[in-house]
Design brief:
- The structure is a homodimer.
- Helices cover 42% and strands 20% of the residues of chain A.
- By secondary structure, chain A is of the alpha/beta class.
- In chain A, the strands form 4 sheets. A 7-stranded parallel sheet of chain A has the order 10-9-11-8-7-12-13, sandwiched between helices. A 4-stranded parallel sheet of chain A has the order 5-4-3-6, sandwiched between helices.
- Chain A starts with 8 loop residues before the first helix and ends with a strand.
- Strand 16 of chain A pairs parallel with strand 13 of chain B, so a sheet runs across the interface.
C-alpha cells in the first residue's frame, strides 16, 4: 500500500545535517531572502498544490475519514496564500542566532558570554495539516536549523508538493548552495520510516512530534533522539467566590467555545465550594447558551439542576470526564472544597499545558501562580492565550509539555541553544 | 555478588517524586538551612564515612583497581570537610527558583512573564567519587529538585554512608517533613538497577550520567528518560602565526599539564602551517619541559625534530591520537593548512566540549568564535576555564555536551526550567 518504500531516510538526514552546518553560518539577510523566495514559490505553485491535495482528499473520502480531519487536510488558494504569508511573517521576526546574552567580565579579566546558536537538525513528525510542512520549515530555517519533515501519509502528496515548492524557493535564494539542502523531507509513506527517523541520534538533535496521543506514545517508546513533546491539553479553569461574574461567564465561554478543537481550549471547569454557590448555575447557563454540554460531577450536577441549567446541556461526569481532552463543545465540570482541592485536582488530571484561575483574591492568585506548575498559568484571562503569538513569541512551532529545554509555547528562540564564548588576554588557571 | 538486590528502585523514585513536589514549594531559607544541616551531619559522621570508605578501598585493592581510580574513591577527614564546605557554598548561592524573567506587557494589557521552576526529579548516575553524592544532592536540593542518586558499586558503602548523613541533616532541618525525602539513593549494587532507573519516565524528568564512555553509551542506549550527557572532552587548542609566543607557551602548558586527568584538559594542539613555523618547535619544547609527550602527525613531527624537541617526548601520531581523550601528560599535535583546516579538523574530531584559539588576528578570532560550535569556545585563554565555577555559575553539576536544554557547564539555573506566568483583567481572545 505504501509508496516510495526504498527512500533512504538515513541518507536524507545525513544530507540535511551537512546543509545545516552551512546554514548555521548564514546571515539573517540570506535566510530572510530564502523565506521570501519560498513564499513566492508556494504562490506560483498554487495550482499544483491544490491538484496534489485533491488526490489526498479523494483518498481520504474513499477511506471514510472524519469531516474534521478532511477539513484540516484540505488546501485551497486562500490557504496556500496563508502559508506564504506565514513564511513572510517569519522573515520579519528577529533572528535569535548570534545574539550575545549574559555577558560578564570575570575578576581575572576574562569576558564570558553566551551566544545563541541553532540546535542543529530538528525532526518534525506531524499528522494531517499540510501547512505544518511550510510553517515548521520556515521556523527551522530562520533559526538556522536543518529540518527533516515527516508528515502523515494521508497528506503525502500535498506535503511532497509543498516541499518541492519550498525547495524551489531555496534554490532561487541568496543562500549559498551548500545550505540549500537544509529542508529535508521523508519522501515515503512507508510506516517504518518514522521508526528509522526516531533512531537517528547521530543526525538529529531533537524530534518534535505534533499529533494525537497514539503518535506521541509511539515516538516516546521508540525515540533514541531527544524528544520535545507537544502533548494534549487538558486545560483547567478554576473559579472562586471572589471572581467577577461578568468575567467568569465571558472567560469560560471564550476558553471553551471560541475554538473548541485546539489544545488550549478549556476541558475542565472547577468551582470551589463557595465559588459554585455564587457562579455555577449562572456560568453553566452561559455555556449552555453557547452550545456547550457540561459533564458534571455529582456536586456540580446538583447545583446546575437546582439553578435550572437546561437538562439538554447536562451530562453525568466524574473522573472519566476529568481525564478527557474533548476537543468539542463539551466540558467537564467539578466542585472542589477549596483552592487546595483545586490544585490537588490539577496535579492529578492536568497534562501540564495551561491552567487558569478566576479570582479577585490576591493571596489565592499568588498561590495559584506559584503552586501550579503547568507550562502556562494564568490569572483572570482566557486559556486561549496559551499560544506563542499571543504571548509575544512571534510564531510558534508547538507547545512543549516536556519540562526540559522549553516548557510551554516554543518560538524561534526555543529552536536555539547557547554556547559559552570566552575572550581573554592570555589568562591561565592557577 | 551484588548487595541488597531486592531494593525497589521504582518505589524510591516515586517517593522522591512526591517529596520533590513539596520541596519545589519551599522557600530559600528552609533549603539553605537544610544544606547547612547536611554539612554539619557530614562533619559529625566523619569517622563513620572514613570507616565505610575503608571497606570500599579494601575491596578496590583486592580487585587490583588502578591507583588513579583508588585515589578518586578515597575519603579522609580533609575530603569530608571539603564536601561539607561545598554544601555551605551552595547555600550561599542565589536561588534561581521563583525568579521572574522577561516580563512584558502585551498590547491587550496582559502581563506575560516567565518564572523559573525546578525541573522536577533528576537522576544522577556516576562512578567512583563519593563527593559527587553530596555535591549533586546539594545542587539539586538548592534548585528545588528531587534527586535519585546512583553511584558506582565500587563506592557503594561510601555513598550509602554519605547519603545517610545527608538524610540526617534533612531530618534536622527547617524543611517541612513532606520535603525531607527529596534526596533518594539507589541502595543496591545490583547492575540491573541502572536499567530500571533509565526506564522511569513517569518519575524522572532528566538523567545526568557522569562517567566514562561505556557508561554514557549504556545510558544512551537504554534511557527512556531525557538524558543530558556529560561526555568526554577532546579539547583543541589552535595556534596561528600571529599569537604571542609567551602566551602560546603558557596557555599550552596550562591547558595540558595543570591537571591532565580532567575533561577540560587539552588533548590536541593544532598549528596552522604558518603558525607551526613560528611556534611549534618552541612550544613543544616548553611542553616537553613540563613532562608532556607529543603525539605528532607527520608534518608536526618533521618540524619538531628539526627544532630539536627531545626525542623522548615525541611519538608518531595521526588520526588515532586525534580521536583520543588521553587524560594524561600526552597530547596529539597536528599541522593544518590554515583556519579553515583547523575548523574542519575540529568538526571531525571534537567532542563539542571546549576549543581554544591563540591569535592576535581580529578576523581569525571572530571567525573561530562564530564557526566553531562546541559548548565553550575561547580566545587567548586556557581550556581549563571551561568550568562552572570559573565561568561564573557558582558551582557545576556537570558539563553538558548535549545541545538541548543546557550546553556547556551546568549550574543551578540549568537545573531549572521556566513556566509562563500570565496575569490579566478579564481578557478574552477575539
Amino acid at each position: 500500500m505504501s509508496e516510495n518504500n526504498d527512500f533512504d531516510v538515513t541518507a536524507e538526514a545525513a544530507r540535511v545535517k551537512l546543509a545545516a552546518r552551512a546554514l548555521a553560518r548564514c546571515e539573517r539577510e540570506a535566510k530572510d531572502d530564502a523565506l521570501h523566495k519560498m513564499a513566492d514559490a508556494l504562490r506560483e505553485r498554487t495550482d499544483d498544490l491544490v491538484a496534489q491535495n485533491a488526490l489526498d482528499l479523494e483518498r481520504a473520502h474513499e477511506r471514510g475519514l472524519e469531516p474534521a480531519f478532511i477539513d484540516r487536510l484540505a488546501l485551497d488558494p486562500a490557504r496556500v496564500e496563508k502559508m506564504a504569508l506565514a513564511l513572510e511573517e517569519v522573515a520579519s521576526l528577529p533572528d535569535p542566532v548570534g545574539r550575545i546574552e549574559r555577558s560578564e567580565r570575570r575578576p581575572n579579566g576574562l569576558t564570558v558570554a553566551r551566544q545563541r546558536i541553532p540546535l542543529g537538525v530538528i525532526g518534525i513528525i506531524y499528522e494531517s495539516r499540510p501547512n505544518v510542512t511550510s510553517d515548521a520549515a520556515g521556523l527551522c530555517l530562520k533559526s538556522g536549523n536543518g529540518v527533516v519533515l515527516k508528515g502523515g501519509s494521508d497528506a503525502y502528496r500535498s506535503n511532497r508538493a509543498v516541499h518541492a515548492a519550498l525547495t524551489l524557493g531555496l534554490e532561487r535564494s541568496a543562500l549559498p548552495p551548500a545550505a540549500r539542502g537544509a529542508i529535508g523531507f521523508v519522501d515515503t509513506t512507508d510506516r517504518d520510516a518514522v521508526r528509522v527517523l526516531l533512531g537517528l541520534s547521530e543526525h538529529l538533535d531533537v524530534i518534535i512530534p505534533r499529533g494525537g496521543k497514539r503518535l506521541i506514545r509511539f515516538v516516546h517508546e521508540h525515540a533514541r533522539v531527544p524528544v520535545i513533546k507537544h502533548d494534549e491539553g487538558v486545560c483547567h479553569v478554576v473559579v472562586d467566590e471572589t471572581a467577577r461574574p461578568d468575567r467568569v461567564d465571558a472567560i469560560l465561554v471564550n476558553s471553551k467555545a471560541q475554538r473548541p478543537g485546539v489544545c488550549n481550549a478549556a476541558e475542565t471547569i472547577l468551582f470551589t465550594e463557595k465559588g459554585a454557590r455564587v457562579h455555577l448555575g449562572r456560568a453553566l447557563g452561559a455555556l449552555a447558551a453557547a452550545g456547550v454540554t457540561c459533564h458534571c460531577d455529582a456536586r456540580a450536577l446538583a447545583i446546575a439542576r437546582e439553578a435550572g441549567v437546561p437538562e439538554a446541556n447536562l451530562r453525568e461526569g466524574g473522573d472519566d470526564a476529568f481525564a478527557r481532552e474533548f476537543l468539542s463543545l463539551d466540558v467537564a465540570v467539578g466542585v472542589v472544597d477549596d483552592l487546595d482541592g483545586a490544585i490537588a485536582h490539577i496535579d492529578r488530571f492536568s497534562s501540564q499545558h495551561t491552567e487558569v484561575i478566576l479570582t479577585e483574591d490576591y493571596t489565592v492568585s499568588r498561590r495559584f501562580l506559584r503552586e501550579v506548575d503547568s507550562s502556562t498559568v494564568i490569572v483572570n484571562a482566557s486559556t486561549r492565550f496559551a499560544d506563542g503569538g499571543q504571548l509575544g513569541l512571534g510564531a510558534e512551532i508547538g507547545i512543549s509539555t516536556t519540562r526540559l529545554h522549553a516548557y510551554g509555547p516554543m518560538g524561534l528562540e526555543e529552536l536555539t541553544t547557547t554556547k559559552f564564548v570566552v575572550t581573554g588576554d592570555g589568562q591561565i588557571r592557577s
